[in-house]
Structure formats: structure tokens, C-alpha cells
Design brief:
The complex is a heterodimer of chains A (174) and B (118). Chain A is built from five helices and five strands. Chain A starts with 9 loop residues before the first strand and ends with a helix. Chain A is 44% helix and 18% strand. Chain A has one domain: Ribonuclease H-like superfamily/Ribonuclease H (Nucleotidyltransferase, domain 5, 2-Layer Sandwich), CATH 3.30.420.10. With 118 residues, chain B is mostly helical. Chain B folds into two domains: 56 residues, 434 Repressor (Amino-terminal Domain) (Orthogonal Bundle), CATH 1.10.260.40; 51 residues. Chain B has seven helices and no strands. Chain B starts with 8 loop residues before the first helix and ends with a helix. The relative contact order of chain B is 0.11. Classes of the chains: A alpha/beta (174), B mainly alpha (118). Chains A and B meet through strand 3 of A and helix 1 of B.
């Protein structure tokens, strides 16, 4: 982090069954804040939205990156599809530009570096962003459920996919 | 939109996995409430704390607290301009020295800030 290299603020949110994970970046390798928020009870989605609205107020990001849960994007359960859409609406109301990427697009972005698995993506992120190193869960065995910390890497992967596509768009425009 | 955070203490603390209580202990404080106030920018850091953060994170206070720096800069520039205006027309030797000083200060503040942000 350096005053000389400050970029626009990018917030990536990845909702999951237990709550949501978020990462705020100020450049591809400069995370400003991150966390995994667990929400329990019947009012999961409204509580998630409250916390996400607070995050949007706190950081006032320029860009919000979400998973593409449209019919052509990644398939998620109805609650998460609706939650994702509501997050996008809140952000657009605040004038935040919303970008969405499907799981396939994220995998494609990392495939350029020879990484094809979810754990591989998490390892690559942990290697390049030292702040996330201590959150890297051990490789999941087939009989294990997914570690809650993995959602943090899913959110980070979305943000890094945005940075990669933004830089390639810039190159194409140049 | 304001892209720069007012205080970058939180990312630096979390980068090294420190809790607010641990960082407070390093500063010689009893609880993490002090760090929480600094991170929320509800209280400015003491000079002692700013030196401590520089030692701990190897980062100058202007990098950690850009919001505070901007506020102080704006206030100092405004006061310096006021005094500069008041001294206009003062033909005494002391008056001329002070005017030179304020011209130099205002120029230096602009140059150093631009260098930091370039």
C-alpha cells in the first residue's frame, strides 16, 4: 500500500449458505479489508443485506463485483440468486458500478496461469496476496464439507478477475 | 467518490494478523478500544502512537493516516495564507522575512504533497 499506487476501491462480495464473504481491494495486490460474515436464523438474506449496506456506506467503493447468477451464469440456489440481485440493486442505487462474473469466467481467468482447481485458485491468491495466506484452508477431502474460509478466496477471485478483465480491456483500448 | 481511506491502520494491522488488543498492548495501552477509535478515525493518533506505528509497520504517518494529513495540511495552508495576507504591505525587515517564509512554506507544501501523490 502506497499513496503513489492508490487505485479505485473495488468491493467483491460472495454470498453463500452461511452468510457472505467480502474483500475490499485498492489495486490487485492491495487488500484494504476483508472478512467472512456468518449470519444465522430465518432472516438470513435481510441481515446479510443490512451488513452489506453498511459495508457500502463505509468504503463507498467505485466498483462492486458479484457472482453472475443469471440463467447464463453460475447456478446457485434461489435465495442466493435473489440476495445477489438485491445487493446489485442497492449498489446501483448508490451509483456504484456493478460487474458480475460467472464461476466459468473466474476459472478461465486463472486458467491462463495453469490453475484449474478451486483450491489451486485459493493457493495462487494466498501466494500473491500475503494478507490472505493465513486463511488458506487445507485441501478438502471428498468426505469433508467446504471450509468457511474458502468463501473469502471466492470473493478475492472475483475481484482479481475484475482487475484482470479491466487491464485486458485497457490493453485492447490502447 | 472519495477513494482514499482516511486511515490505513486496519489493513496494516490485519495484514500481520494482529488483534486490536495486541496492537494496543504494543502501544502500551490497556484495551483495543484505542485502536478501534483510531481505525474509525474518531480520534487522531498521538505523536507517540504515530512513532510507534512507524516503528512497527515501517510506514510513515502520512501513509497510515492520509486523512489526518490532508486535514492538517488544509488548515495550516489556510492559516498561513491568512497571515500572509495580513503581512502584505509590511515594509519592515522582519515583515519581509516572514513573507518570504510563508511563500516558501506554501510552495514547499504543494511540492511535497504532489511528490507523495505522484
Amino acid at each position: 500500500m502506497n499513496l503513489r499506487n492508490r487505485y479505485n476501491m473495488v468491493l467483491a462480495i460472495y454470498p453463500n449458505t452461511r452468510g457472505f464473504a467480502f474483500v475490499v481491494f485498492e489495486g490487485p495486490l492491495a487488500p484494504v479489508d476483508w472478512g467472512v460474515k456468518e449470519v444465522r436464523g430465518r432472516q438470513k438474506s435481510p441481515l446479510c443485506l443490512l451488513r452489506i449496506a453498511a459495508l457500502l456506506d463505509q468504503y463507498r467503493p467505485d466498483v462492486l463485483v458479484l457472482q453472475d447468477t443469471s440463467p447464463t451464469g453460475t447456478r446457485r440456489v434461489r435465495r442466493l440468486r435473489e440476495l445477489n440481485a438485491s445487493i446489485g440493486e442497492i449498489a446501483e442505487d448508490q451509483g456504484v458500478s456493478v460487474h458480475t462474473y460467472s464461476r466459468a469466467q473466474v476459472c478461465e481467468a486463472f486458467a491462463a496461469f495453469g490453475i484449474t482447481t478451486k483450491h489451486g485458485i485459493a493457493e495462487a491468491i494466498a501466494k500473491h496476496v500475503p494478507a490472505f495466506e493465513r486463511y488458506l484452508p487445507p485441501p478438502r477431502k471428498p468426505w469433508m464439507s467446504e471450509d468457511a474460509r474458502m468463501s473469502l478466496f471466492d470473493a478475492a477471485a472475483l475481484a482479481l478477475t475484475f482487475f484482470q478483465s479491466a487491464s485486458s480491456d485497457g490493453r485492447e483500448a490502447a | 467518490m472519495n477513494n482514499n481511506l482516511i486511515c490505513y491502520l486496519r489493513p496494516y494491522r490485519r495484514r500481520w494478523g494482529l488483534t486490536q488488543d495486541e496492537l494496543a498492548r504494543l502501544l502500551g495501552c490497556k484495551t483495543g478500544a484505542v485502536i478501534s477509535r483510531l481505525e474509525r478515525s474518531s480520534r487522531p493518533p498521538s505523536l507517540q502512537a504515530a512513532y510507534a506505528f512507524e516503528l512497527l509497520f515501517g510506514t510513515v504517518p502520512i501513509e497510515l493516516f492520509p486523512g489526518l494529513h490532508a486535514t492538517v495540511k488544509d488548515e495550516v495552508i489556510a492559516r498561513a495564507r491568512d497571515l500572509y495576507e495580513e503581512l502584505q504591505g509590511d515594509t519592515s525587515r522582519a515583515g519581509r522575512i516572514k513573507l518570504d517564509f510563508f511563500e516558501e512554506v506554501l510552495e514547499r507544501i504543494d511540492t511535497t504533497t504532489n511528490n507523495h501523490l505522484a
